[in-house]
Amino acid sequence: MPYRVISATRLLFCALLLLPLSVSAGTVVRVATSMGEFQIELFDTAAPGTVANFLSYVNSGAYNGTVVHRLVPDFVIQGGWLTFNEAQQTFYDIAIGPTIQNEFSISNLRGTIAMAKVSGDPHSATSQWFINLGNNTELDSSNGGFTVFGRVMGAGMHTVDAIGALPPVTVINGLDTFPLINYTTGQLLSSHLVHLSMTRMGSTEGDPAVFDVSTAKLNAMVNAGELGMIRGEFALISETPNIVVKLDGASLFYLDQTVPGMATFDSSTGRLTIPELRIDGEVAYRNVRFLLTDAQHLVFTLEGAD
Hints:
The chain is mainly beta. It has two domains: 5-201, Cyclophilin-like (Cyclophilin), CATH 2.40.100.10; 206-304, no CATH class. It is built from three helices and 23 strands. Strands 4-14-2-3-11-9-10-6-5 form a nine-stranded antiparallel β-sheet. Strands 15, 16, 17, 18, 19, 20, 21, 22 and 23 form a nine-stranded mixed β-sheet that branches. The chain has a three-stranded mixed β-sheet with strand order 1-8-7, with no helix packed on it. A hairpin with a 5-residue loop joins strand 16 and strand 17 (229-238).
């Protein structure tokens, strides 16, 4: 049965969306969905206004609990607009901020994320985004070009493709089909919809290993061989009798490629080696060596440094 959309009455998110924020290069956002997770690397330099707008929704939590409300097979999946109240059998649209200027410069190729907008108005994008399931280069010359502002990282397209392979079903009259999970007919359940939430993780840019004295945290890019390449934060938990750090699992995100000077982790020996550790912008130590002393809790103990 078709469902209706009711506009949100609270404007709290609108105020949050207008707050200034600092945007770093190569910002990574983790997207958790009903079908699995994937990561998006944002093109901060190529589309700074669009990235800032997108991150304002991410940072405020506006996207959390929204659903993928559009699926055109082999073309796009789209989100960033609706939430669903199962008890009321009603969709609600999220509060949105002002429209933004179009910043088209990158082609709408498979795996890229772009902003949706109103037909005939290049500068009408607000909260809705879409991910290209194919090479949709026709969008580059339509409506001023649809602004690509990021890309799905690594194997994340497996999750996106899984969403794109779901059955497309008409849920709201007048809208494109939704991707639904295990739905046949009758009442729509929340579990039938592809829900998502987003978390800003960090950046793919910057120095490979930095210790922040003010927070007592070590941020490092690590090449762990077969385990993959990651970036994460290590918190200083002890200074005596040994320097001990603990890797925060929630801070981890995967990288697509190696970076000169990144740390290495040898899973056979449990040794983490950091070629150069920077403090306050300067190389403070070289060849910093940590040993994994508690694998269950991801705790490392300093062995030495040059």
